Amino acid sequence: MSLYDPVLPLHNNLCENDIRQYVMKRNISGETKSEDGKKARDIFLSIKTTCRKCGINFIDYLKNKLEKTNKFPSISSLVREAIKLHNIQSQISTC
To answer: Would you say residue 69 lies in a domain?
Structure first.
């Protein structure tokens, strides 16, 4: 895919960095005691990683969602905007 899109890197270091936090946590504290615990951990780490990539403080994002203040957009809308921005940059770089 990266050969067709010059914006994409030729390596997967970003993906490896995304799972590094999960692996370190698992190695230090061991596995969760239940399947529900594993799902919760995975969801929170995913949201935390997405917040970091979007430049949003994870704790502030969680407070916003719990207090329903709507200070931040939803994660899905942030990802959609990032994809739109990427597509625009790809079109510009291939011109």
So the answer is: yes
